[in-house]
Amino acid sequence: MSFKPIFDFEQSIAKFFGSSYAVATDSCTHAIELCLRLKKSTIAKCPRCTYISIPFTFEKLNLDWHFTDEKWSNFYYIDDSIIDAAVYWNRNGFISNTYMCLSFQFQKHLSLGRGGAILLDNFNDYENLKKMSYDGRIHNINWAEQDIDKIGYHYYMTPETADLGLTKLPVAIETEPRLWTFKDYPNLSKMKVFRNLRIC
Length: 200
Hints:
- This protein has helices spanning 4-17, 28-39, 53-60, 123-133, 159-174, 192-195, and strands at 21-25, 43-47, 64-68, 76-77, 82-84, 99-103, 116-120.
- It is an alpha/beta fold.
């Protein structure tokens, strides 16, 4: 299979947001997970009102995390450099020296059914995240011929999703996005699954 649509989509998303690089993934949640793994993070924070997969990811990674009362709009920080920007859409909106994680889930401004991306400006991190998103592999080289040197995860965006993204991107660029805030989400800390944890 050809990975050219993925690279083309990554370059187009990076150009729109004004980042040096973009790594396409199969979801925003997995984009965040990859960034946490890249940084070997041990702590994180989570607004009480956000998407439920975020604190689940913190539990999955066994992080020391806590809920906050942050009243966010468009995006929020998970730590000093990882940003949950799942609902964010803004030309040249990339924040330098961060990892901004986007979502292309069906309700988002660029609606692809599923998908995500990491915006960043560090080339070494870009190379590492590309490998991590694709089972430790380098694209377009038979994996059996590679001496894989990094643990990877099956979190890559498919070429078919990237093709759809390239098709829908021009309209998304010209369309005014809606403003998302913490008010669009329930208070997770009130849910039984989190009341039963040490965090609440």
